[in-house]
Amino acid sequence: MPNAQRPEDLHLLFVDGVNRKDLDALLALYEPGSVTIGLDGARLSDHASLRAMLAGFVGAVDRIDGETRKLIVHGDHALMSARFRANGGEVTGVSGEVARRQPDGSWRFLIDDPTFGVA
């Protein structure tokens, strides 16, 4: 499973994992103990809840594409945002994340809000 060597690689690997329906690859992008805001607004901080949310997401998405729209790196932390389109543009949005550099130099999500840009 490839690791994110740069913070923005997380967005590329997330898109790839969703399009391949690879839950294990998606889960590997998150630090243990990370926090994700579910699509329903719930705070998910355990592996089982994150896996269930991601499984529902990949089940509902035929294809997704997206790109990093903003990135600010400070030391071992990165504040990031991505723009995404799913199901042929039927669903669009802006995410917000905080990533952290791991001891091996790779990056993982620490905080993820896939609906950050949704009012």
UniProtKB/TrEMBL annotation:
InterPro entries, sorted: NTF2-like_dom_sf (IPR032710), SnoaL-like (IPR037401)
Source domain of life: Bacteria
Domain SnoaL-like: from-to ranges: 14-99
Pfam hit, one: SnoaL_2
Name of the protein this chain belongs to: YybH family protein
Organism: Phytohabitans kaempferiae
Organism lineage string: Bacteria, Bacillati, Actinomycetota, Actinomycetes, Micromonosporales
